[in-house]
Amino acid sequence: MKNEMTLSFVAIEENEALARMAMTCFITPLDPTLEEISEFKTIVSEAVTNAIIHGYDCDGVSMVKIHAVIDDHKISMTVQDEGNGIFDVEQAMEPMFTTKPLMERSGMGFTIMESFSDHLSVESSIGNGTIVRFEKTFSPVSEVSRMR
C-alpha cells in the first residue's frame, strides 16, 4: 500500500494537536500497535512544536508544512518551517540543549525523536528554516494477534 499527504497550518501551539491527530489518522491503515502509535505521536508532536516555538517563535502567521509518504509498513515524513533556522544542528541535537530555557523547554526533543524513529535527519539554514526528516517502520500485525 502506498499513500501520500501534505498538511500545512499556521504556527500556533494549538495546531500541534491538529498535526498529531491528523498524522495518527493517516497511519491507521498500517494497523499500528498502541506503543507504535504513542511513539509516532510523540515524534510528530516534538517536530511540530520545534517548528512553531523555535522556528517561528509562535508568530501565529507563518506556516508549518508536513509531508508524509506511506510505503508498505514504513512512513517517511518531513516537518518543515521557513523560520529562524538552527545555528548549530549538532549542538541542538544534544540532550538537554535548549535555546528557550525561560519557556521551560527540556532540550530533549531531538533525542526523543531519534529514539522513537528508525532514522532522523535535520537540515537547517539560519534565516531560511529547518527540515526534520524521519522514518518509522510499523510491525505487521499477524492474524493470530488480531484474534486475541
UniProtKB/TrEMBL annotation:
Indicate the enzyme's highest-level EC class: transferase
Per the UniProt entry, the Enzyme Commission number(s) are 2.7.11.1
Molecular function GO labels: protein serine/threonine kinase activity
Q: Which UniProt keywords apply?
A: ATP-binding, Kinase, Nucleotide-binding, Serine/threonine-protein kinase, Sporulation, Transferase
Q: What is the reaction catalyzed?
A: L-seryl-[protein] + ATP = O-phospho-L-seryl-[protein] + ADP + H(+); L-threonyl-[protein] + ATP = O-phospho-L-threonyl-[protein] + ADP + H(+)
Histidine kinase/HSP90-like ATPase domain segment(s): 35-140
Q: Which Gene3D superfamilies match?
A: Histidine kinase-like ATPase, C-terminal domain
Q: Does the keyword Oxidoreductase apply?
A: no
Family, per the entry?
Answer: Belongs to the anti-sigma-factor family.
NCBIfam families associated with the record: spIIAB
Its biological function? Answer: Binds to sigma F and blocks its ability to form an RNA polymerase holoenzyme (E-sigma F). Phosphorylates SpoIIAA on a serine residue. This phosphorylation may enable SpoIIAA to act as an anti-anti-sigma factor that counteracts SpoIIAB and thus releases sigma F from inhibition.
Name of this protein: Anti-sigma F factor
Gene encoding the protein: spoIIAB
